Records
---
Amino acid sequence: MSERDTHRTIPLADLRQAGLSLPTGQAPVSGTGALADSLGRPLRDLRISVTDRCNFRCSYCMPKEVFDANYAYLPHASLLSFEEITRLARQFVAHGVQKIRLTGGEPLLRKNLERLIEQLANLRTLQGQPLDITLTTNGSLLARKAQSLKDAGLQRVTVSLDGLDDAVFRRMNDVDFAVADVLAGIEVARQVGLGPIKVNMVVKRASNDQEILPMARYFKGSGIVLRFIEYMDVGATNGWRMDQVVPSAEVVRRIQAELPLLALEPSAAGETAQRWGYAAAAGLHDADAGEIGVISSVTRAFCGDCNRARLSTEGKLYLCLFAQDGYDLKPLLRGAASDAALASAIGQIWQGRSDRYSELRSSLPADSGSGPRRVEMSYIGG
Ligand code: SAM
Ligand code: SF4
Ligand code: SF4
């Protein structure tokens, strides 16, 4: 039996039923913005998955053989409503969250998403500022929706695009979706002012690594920041292998060979990407040419300042992208819990956080497919 067959014997839906027990017997934790986890990391960034469905079947995320016609997606009744999401988001903001990223699955498949954005845009940080609200999308519906998203209060978008060669991209998304349609979505997003736009490219060796340079050339000087993401061992269905990872250092080297780069300072604490600017002839950063980013989740752990929490479509709080399970907040939400009780539960969970998977990865046994399984990225979002 192959590794993938072994994986298939455990229905994914069963894994989602579990849920970690909420902490009990601890002192209440109110939202003061001073919250820190057990490694001293604050809570600043909340990623909210609004659907577990997607119209793409990227092999590294939702391979067709697993996410087929028989796959059991979450039933509608178990999805958090927009009001429930906003109520939870308010408690996260009370604990110091300043940035919200909507994700999925494909977030633009969630009906009336603009209504959620309107509600989230009304929230204010502890300093009285609007939140930084953004969204990660595969771009397939962006041309159609960019204006209404902007009108609802979305500030910017990150668009995933794994290559410019149509044959390569169609193979990567595995639903025969054309590059031109994603580029058209990016263009409309730019026209309506959903910026600064970022483009994410997952690099998988022998699948799309030949697209690194064409992508760099295309987006250089466009005002769009292209970010290269190392192919990660998230979930349990993509059959990940280390030899399919193209280390960020190699990506930078391959671009450098044609387009000189220089390292830039991080623009914010907890930033996932290392920044590289295109160099001018004098060896200074050429701001007009712009920059790229590399996200080295596999070769260079950045758990030390990870300030990100993830809320699944059905209301589970995940403390790490590689977590096996989350804390189910829905019973609190749908029970009689007050806002203070919700905030306290979130605070207590975060205080107990010690996750640092990427830092520990190299010392963990290789995933044989038989141990406890990590949650899928399409379920908690990127
Ligand atoms: N569907 C949207 C999209 O593709 O942008 C949002 C959800 S997707 C799970 C979020 C991000 O995760 C995308 O940029 C995607 O490329 C990235 N991603 C998914 N699986 C990955 C993997 N195994 N390794 C690295 N990045 C991955
Ligand atoms: Fe869908 Fe995004 Fe996953 Fe691709 S990466 S299958 S577009 S959720
Ligand atoms: Fe954060 Fe977990 Fe990624 Fe480390 S492995 S950076 S703790 S999400």
---
Amino acid sequence: MLKSKHIAVYVSGGIAAYKSLEVVRALIKQHAEVQVVMTKSAQEFVTPLTFATLSTRPVLTDNFTPQSSSDDFIPHIKIARWTDLAVVVPATADIIAKMANGISDDLATTSLMATDAPKIVFPAMNTSMWNYPPVQKNLKTLEEIGIQVVQPDSGFLAEGESGKGRLVQLPVIMDAIESKLSSDQSLLGKKVIVTAGGTKEPLDPVRFLGNNSSGKMGIAMAESAARSGADVTLITTVNYSSSYRNLAVVKVDSALNMLEQIQNRFEKIDVLVMAAAIADFRPLHVATQKIKKTADNDNYTIELTKNPDILKTVAKNKINQFVVGFAAETENLIPNAEKKLKSKNADVILANDVSNLDAGFNVDTNRITLISHNAHPDNWPLMTKQAVADKFWKYYLKQGN
Ligand code: CTP
């Protein structure tokens, strides 16, 4: 259930900092994506390199110097948007005080304040500090503003004393993380179809006309919906095996094949997301045997016929279904996408300029403009396809669905 979840692990400076290495390792083992953020004092206990090695990502610290020209200059906003869940482990009295009082004097506290994601704090400190009334007051404030505080254990402390203040054990930390994430079941009960990949239009038994679509955007849409509890069917031309119990895969090849699979299910679904790159034309004649080259013939002409517009065909009959199209454009992005919104009877078009190298076909990022009927076009920043997917489902829910 942690697969592909974006978990930001904030490490503050206490002796228990070394224990959060185990947390990062356990999260990575469960295929979560982990971004570690360390305070200055945490780096006195464990080096960023150790966390970077375990999390397979550079650790964010207060070094605001971009490492490369593509790095973001505002890392606290970037990490804030990226995060599905923020955990502060260990949480010192200092970081707890800052979080409770709106103090943001380093990257960790600024990012924690900037993120809307749910947060869990795992305190670890000396018993006397734990019992100090202002610390207790700050913990109460955190709980009042919706931040979960996991009470520390009692036992032997690093300073040689015994009492309350030990960081809880790894299984307790992992349980808290899992149950926090599983509480986002915002799409539970929704039936969703997502299409992905480029269609393959047969020419003869061994050849087809195809395109370069990787299916990444559609797969991200399907997985994101599945993580939020939707019952998802991914109708796709690409090889993909689902590791989600609630994400079924239907393999198709041609546009006609894809249309049939959607029509079989359309009546019963709540949302259709057409992320597939569908060939507008298919060979008119499909040879029953492999087409041979002949000595007298240097050119070969293939006659094409129009494929149905799948989105338009199914959206014509929509009752309550929410229908989402994509628009791949190389010029006049917004006017062209607005035309598609109306002509195809879609509820939303996610438009992207595929002439940009960092958006569209075969890359992991996308830059979307959301086009809908009653609002101005909404330009989203360059984001990973997964972030686009998560943002889209949040938008969908905000529409009152
Ligand atoms: N689409 C579809 N059936 C087609 C072609 C496209 O359902 N035969 C869907 C795509 O899945 C996408 C949307 O329509 O959600 C827009 O696709 P796009 O390729 O941008 O536009 P086209 O309608 O093909 O128009 P054009 O190629 O002229 O831009």
